Amino acid sequence: MRAPIGDFTDARPAPDCLDLLTEPVAAAVRAWQGDVPAEQLLYVDTDPEIADTAAFVEHHGADLLDRSANCVVVAGKRGGESTLAACLVLSRTRVDVNGVVRRQLGARKASFAPMDSATGESGMEYGGITPIGLPAGWPLLVDAAVVDTEWVLIGSGRRRGKLIVPGKAFTTLPGAVVVDGLGVATG
Q1: Which CATH number does the domain housing residue 114 bear?
Q2: Would you say residue 70 lies in a domain?
Q3: Is position 1 within any domain?
Q4: Buried b / exposed e along 138-170 (16+ C-beta atoms within 10 A)
Q5: pLDDT per position as a tens digit, 20-35
Q6: What is the pLDDT, as a whole number, of residue 151?
Q7: pLDDT at residue 23, rounded to an integer
Q8: Which backbone phi and psi does 101 adopt, to 5 degrees?
Q9: Which of 12, 77, 118, 166 is the 20 to 30 Å CA partner of 154?
Q10: Could you tell me the pTM of the whole model?
């Protein structure tokens, strides 16, 4: 099947590709509930060498910047306690870590989580972290612009492969909070 966005000619329902996903992502797809059927979560095979946004968009087209989202892991700190959370913003924006994220988490300080924490705690590969299958209890901050996008390209938990998901599906993920202004323009 042809993907609803991008130049991908072999999109397959994610429930048919569980062996290509990391265990946390596969478990989340198996347990999927909500208004969007699991069959609408689509898997597309991609080259792991171009998993990072800039290289990916250069190869597959700049129009994907408005239709893809980055999921980054942040650490909020207050009183010696650290809380990990994930943030999902459109790829053409960056996460407002020191403003919106810090306030949303009630943290005194917020920063991007170290790579080993992000990958170790999530069970996902660097460059492939996705909001689907995050650890229980993690807040998931989702920029309202992502929810308003019809189809969104996100990581699959691995550097190889991506998921294409209806934007409205992110509102039903565990711990999801839709936040206006989470993603700010780059430049």
Answers
A1: 3.90.960.10
A2: yes
A3: no
A4: bbbbbbebbbebebbbbbbbbbbbbbbbbbbbb
A5: 999 999 999 999 998 9
A6: 97
A7: 97
A8: -65, -50
A9: 77
A10: 0.95
Tokens found for residue 30: 């198996």
Question: How does DSSP classify residue 110?
Answer: E
Which string of b and e fits 65-88 if b means at least 16 CB within 10 Å?
Answer: bebbbbbbbbbbeeeeeebbbbbb
Residue recorded with tokens 């990581």: 155
pLDDT-derived band at 61 (thresholds 50, 70, 90) equals confident
**DSSP symbols for 65-105:** GGTBEEEEEEEEEETTEEEEEEEEEETTEEE-IIIIIHHHH
Please indicate, yes or no, if residue 2 is contained in any of the structural domains. no
Residue 169 lies in a domain: yes
d(CA 162, CA 171): 19
Q: Which amino acid is at 73?
A: V
Please give the residue range of the domain that contains residue 140: 12-181
The Cα 76–Cα 90 span in angstroms is 21
133: left (phi over 0), alpha (psi -120 to 50) or beta: left
Helix runs in 20-79, H state only: 23-30, 53-60
Structure tokens at 66: 């408005």
How many structural domains comprise the chain? Answer: 1
Q: Give one DSSP letter per residue of 163-181, joined into a string.
A: EEEEGGGGGGSTTEEEETT
